[in-house]
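The step that takes the researchers longest sounds almost clerical: writing a folded protein down as plain text. Below is the pair of lines this work produces for a single protein:

——
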Amino acid sequence: MQGFTVLNPDELGQDPAVGMDLALALGVHHLEIRTAYGSNALVLDDQQLRHIRQLADERGLRVAALASPLWKWCRSEAAPGRVDSFGFPTQIRAEDRERWVDRALTVAGLLGTDRVRVFSHLSVGEQTETFRDDPLLPYALKAAERAGVRLLLENEPVCTVHEPASLLDVLQAHPGLGLWLDLGNLFEVGYGTAEAVDALAPYTEYVHIKDYRPRDDGMKDFVAAGTGAVPYRELLPALHRARPGLPYALETHVRETPGQALTRGAAFLRATVPGGLA
């Protein structure tokens, strides 16, 4: 079974048409939507979302996933550190959260996708919330099922659930939840191994690909996939053996030359995933 490549247009800027045109040039037929026109997708109005869908339809492209910021948040009284939430607030009152879940499902419907990313609460010291037992999660999973949508949990290091053991605990406790596996994040927290991939593969439904070179100051220099420190030549074949046919989404974070990074990354993925990618 052949997997496929996904491109996020906002890697090239806030006009989604630019990234869509690059996808076409690269022979990529699937998109991930996160931000556009200077706003997070969840706060765009319905007309803007319909326009994004129209731009994709005109090019024969399909939106494979909504990279929502759900649960990349904390209580209003907590103090999150520097977090990239892509234009969405990181402090959300409990009484407002259900509304955002509903909005994400509406946005997914407007874009024509059945995959929505979620996180697992920001880690904020003593104010940190528990994702596994969050009463909002059963509500969200039931609402998603009614909408024909899968909620997929990303292993995000600034959030509470990011190591294999805690991921498996949550995924086994909530069978309606899938895994949005970020292999770069898995490597960052010390589990960039084929063994970890094998353990997580049965739950994986979507894959994020980014690469970087660690710096002496603890920061990262993001580079094209396959040119950094993440051991993709080991991880990608292992994941494909255990779970063929997955979507692989390029998330370069390369600021200076994003088009070149996406082009190199797409070629690397097709050469490294056994059987290639569509």
